[in-house]
Automatic annotation (TrEMBL):
It comes from the Bacteria. Pfam families: HATPase_c. Its EC number is 2.7.13.3. It comes from Pseudoalteromonas citrea. This is histidine kinase. Residues 222-461 form the Histidine kinase domain.
Length: 465
């Protein structure tokens, strides 16, 4: 083999080695990009599964942190011309802060990503705005969202943490941010539609419940009217019978004074035989019991009629606590064998309210309180004025509510009762009614110690707008 041929073979081998090395670099680059793509896809998937904007942003930051580790990161969107506003921050600080666009930020917004070894040397004012004066390295990149140019800032406490290749890599990663935010918008449209459906169901069920209450009110008013008539007859007849029986015994006593001894002896024998003296006392007790029963039924009917007569949806200037007593009368049978009622009321000023709606709130809370008590408990009902507001408290010593459930206690359809024993609408409707009266209702509870519902209502001198 000649020297020339040998030289050509060496050069050919070098070219092959160079091609192999180039191919290996390309394979490594492709592997790196594939790994990046996998991370980006996983990050996008996690972002789309999030249910709040905060969760979505934090998912994006978590994905970015895998690609280029940071100690703090910020997403900024355009505000008024010449300023950016912090839309999200990994540190949960500085959100909604506004930054003036300086030459450094402008160069990134209009050009390529930048890796800065020590940002402290440039002393940008926005570090103070972001409360990020302790950081040194910075990685800045722009991305597009809704036809606007936005900014990503990643900061590290270590000098030289980011290099030029990191700037190139972050330029690819911002594609994730652009795609994810586009998907986020669609996701939130879906969430908003879902929330609207839930709200629509809540309103619909509220209307159904209101219709049921209205129908129940009309039915109860009719029943009360039907009961009231025979009770009136029974009451009148009892009084007449009581008077007639008393007159009969008076006649018997008068006869004793005018009969001859033989007839008197016969009368005494008959009186003893039929226990008339005993019946005289017995009749007095029987009539007293009957009158007490009639009086109680009459009082319940009057309470029921008063409760139902408030079934209008107009605002009236009245005592907002008046319905508590009426509601207790309606629940008297449920309460008497279960618990003891303690009432502490101070005088409260009249306020504009819708009586039947507040009665429904009292009914819901008292029914819940009674159902939470397992054995001879107590329900304390208080009403008083505090800071120009009317406060109503209903406190039971029942089984209580777990702390983990308190945050959802007013959610529509959420119930802590057994299946078939609650619709999950009572407290949701009660909260809506209280808010309608410009008030608030809160709950505090301890398991096995009891629950306190507190209603705070403003004193309204006119109906709310």
């Amino acid at each position: 083999m000649t020297i020339n041929n040998h030289q050509q073979l060496i050069e050919h081998n070098e070219r092959l080695i160079e091609k192999v090395a180039r191919l290996e670099r390309e394979v490594d680059s492709l592997r790196t990009q594939h790994a990046e793509s996998q991370v980006l896809l996983e990050g996008m998937s996690a972002s789309l599964q999030a249910s709040t904007i905060e969760e979505i942003y934090q998912s994006i930051f978590a994905t970015l942190n895998i690609q280029a580790s940071f100690d703090a990161a910020f997403l900024l969107t355009p505000d008024v011309p010449g300023t950016l506003i912090v839309a999200a921050a990994s540190t949960h600080q500085s959100v909604h802060q506004k930054l003036s666009v300086d030459p450094l930020l402008k160069s990134v917004l209009t050009g390529a990503a930048k890796a800065i070894i020590d940002i402290q040397l440039l002393k940008p004012t926005w570090l103070n705005t972001l409360d990020a004066t302790e950081y040194h390295s910075a990685l800045l990149a722009s991305f597009s969202y809704k036809s606007s140019v936005c900014l990503l800032i990643m900061l590290s406490e270590n000098k030289g943490a980011y290099l030029r290749q990191d700037a190139r890599a972050i330029s690819r990663i911002t594609g994730l941010v652009e795609q994810t935010l586009a998907q986020v918008e669609n996701r939130f449209i879906e969430l908003e539609a879902q929330q609207l459906r839930i709200e629509s169901e809540r309103v619909q069920n509220n209307l159904v419940q209101q219709e049921k209450m209205a129908s129940l009110g009309q039915l109860s008013a009719g029943i009360a009217h039907e009961i009231n008539n025979p009770i009136s007859f029974i009451g009148s007849n009892l009084q007449l019978m009581q008077q007639q029986v008393a007159d009969m015994f008076k006649v018997q006593e008068s006869l004793r004074e005018h009969l001859d001894p033989k007839a008197l002896s016969t009368l005494n024998n008959l009186t003893e035989q039929y226990q008339c003296d005993f019946l005289k006392d017995e009749f007095s007790e029987l009539f007293a019991d009957c009158n007490l029963g009639v009086e109680r039924v009459s009082h319940i009917v009057k309470s029921l009629k008063a409760y139902c007569q408030n079934n209008d949806s107009n605002w009236h200037l009245s005592d907002v606590c008046e319905g508590i007593g009426l509601t207790l009368k309606i629940l008297e049978n449920q309460i008497k064998n279960t618990c003891r009622i303690v009432e502490e009321h101070t005088e409260t000023p009249q306020s504009y309210c819708i009586n039947n709606e507040l009665n429904q709130v009292y009914l819901n809370l008292l029914v819940n309180a009674v159902q939470s008590i397992t054995d001879n408990g107590e329900i304390l009902i208080r009403s008083y004025c505090q800071e120009q507001k009317i406060v109503i408290e209903i406190h039971d010593n029942g089984i209580g509510i777990a702390h983990s459930q308190l945050d959802r206690i007013f959610d529509p359809f959420y119930t802590t009762k057994d299946v078939g024993k609650g619709t999950g609408l009572g407290l949701s409707i009660s909260q809506a009614i209280v808010k309608k009266h410009l008030g608030e209702i809160t709950v505090s509870s301890t398991v096995n110690q009891g629950t306190l519902f507190k209603i705070v209502l403003p004193i309204l001198t006119s109906p709310p707008p």
